[in-house]
Amino acid sequence: MSVQDKLDSIFTAVVHRNPGESEFHQAVREVLDSVAPALGKHPEYAQAKIIERICEPERQIIFRVPWEDDRGEVHINRGFRVEFNSALGPYKGGLRFHPSVYLGIVKFLGFEQLFKNALTGMPIGGGKGGSDFDPKGRSDREVMRFCQSFMTELYRHIGEYTDVPAGDIGVGGREIGYLFGQYKRITNRYESGVLTGKGLVYGGAQVRREATGYGAVFFAEEMLRAAGDGIEGKRVVVSGSGNVAIYAIEKVHQLGGLVVACSDSSGYVRDDKGIDVAVLKEVKEVRRERIEQYVRHRPGATFTPGGGLWRDVPCAVAIPSATQNEIDADDAAALVAGGCVAVVEGANMPTTPAAVRVFAEAGVRFAPGKAANAGGVAASALEMQQNASRDSWTFEYSEQRLHGIMRDIHARCYATAEEYGMPGNYVAGANIDGFRMVAEAMLAHGLI
Ligand SMILES: NC(=O)C1=CN([C@@H]2O[C@H](COP(=O)(O)OP(=O)(O)OC[C@H]3O[C@@H](n4cnc5c(N)ncnc54)[C@H](O)[C@@H]3O)[C@@H](O)[C@H]2O)C=CC1
Ligand SMILES: O=C(O)CCC(=O)C(=O)O
């Protein structure tokens, strides 16, 4: 059987074993499509069934989360933690609170995470979790009660050396605080390294909040520089207006680019003078309002309801930072027609496979999320490092470390793509390099 036939049959088995989990299938297919050359060079991987083992999470936990709203009504949500792979270190990855969350989403995110974490070069395995709870429109006290109930089950599965959750969509500093408080209360242990993304006053690290967005822009800068270009003077569109998007916009502006539009799930705002980050933070981080409110403070800015951002606003650089599969083939064609030269995934898997093909055919440089958005989890590993040594670094030093890590990730992806005869193919470079690290560690550990 050829390597490709073998990979096809593994994929068929994954689909069969995980019915209805389309996002997970998509994430697996993308990696399997890249790793054939590495398997050709390393027959020992196939012999030890590394791919088959990588596609099967080490552990999947599903639990009931009952909680009471402010009117005394009882709600039941479902909680998840998928501990995907611990070959490189304790499971590490965020928690997502969003009504769309189900096992297939958590598994796709956990699968992506294990290769991403490998690329950071830090000793962290891959995991992901979350709930179908919707924090939108909930009071702080409701969110607190939900987080306490969620942690009342989750605490027995996590720990500094076991599994270290963090934030993702719908889980930011507020939620991490409530989760940490409940963990501390139940276990009677001040175990700082059990969660990352903590507040600065109780064990959080400088630059963790900014890290995913800043990191994506550092990666963009490296990718453009490798092509003899740069971000300065470029018109940029960033989707989303949450943690990743806000700090991506901030860093683009610091590097001399201009972000002219961003969005949330209700629509997008366009501001040709450049998105005002202070206003955006006030609307989104402080008031937790819909993006439409941005235009109240910015004469000349416009709000458009719905999802037309990628088709309507031309740009040289696109940084999708909202959610999975937000750029389809038609969006990609519109971006190409509008002069887009680079796409950098701030979100996890925001570009559909058909859209990735459109970019490849048009020669658009494309940075996959598992490389480009790895700055967040890398900064989480730096937070764990500071917690373990009871230390706290400055903002400047932490940002320098992040910058160095993103440069290294870029260099590894670039070099691996060259080594395998696919220069400029960052998808192949990231998948092969991340896969090789996990595979080598799994081989070393024996059949477990
Ligand atoms: N927070 C982190 O450190 C990291 C996050 N990511 C990924 O980045 C993406 C964004 O995450 P965060 O900024 O942390 O979440 P967030 O909850 O802070 O912000 C998410 C943003 O995306 C928007 N959004 C969500 N669903 C949408 C939809 N269907 N259509 C349009 N907009 C939508 C929301 O309105 C919000 O503006 C996710 O894909 C996440 O997995 C990746 C690496 C690390
Ligand atoms: O910081 C972390 O542990 C997780 C970040 C995350 O969820 C991601 O990289 O998608």
Automatic annotation (TrEMBL):
InterPro entries linked: Aminoacid_DH-like_N_sf (IPR046346), Glu/Leu/Phe/Val/Trp_DH (IPR006095), Glu/Leu/Phe/Val/Trp_DH_C (IPR006096), Glu/Leu/Phe/Val/Trp_DH_dimer (IPR006097), Glu_DH (IPR014362), Glu_Leu_Phe_Val_DH (IPR050724), NAD(P)-bd_dom_sf (IPR036291), NAD_bind_Glu_DH (IPR033922)
Source taxon at top rank: Bacteria
Classification via SMART domains: ELFV_dehydrog
Pfam families: ELFV_dehydrog, ELFV_dehydrog_N
Entry similarity comment: Belongs to the Glu/Leu/Phe/Val dehydrogenases family.
Subunit structure: Homohexamer.
NCBIfam families attached to this UniProt entry: PRK09414.1
UniProt name for this protein: Glutamate dehydrogenase
Organism annotation: Dactylosporangium maewongense
UniProt gene name: gdhA
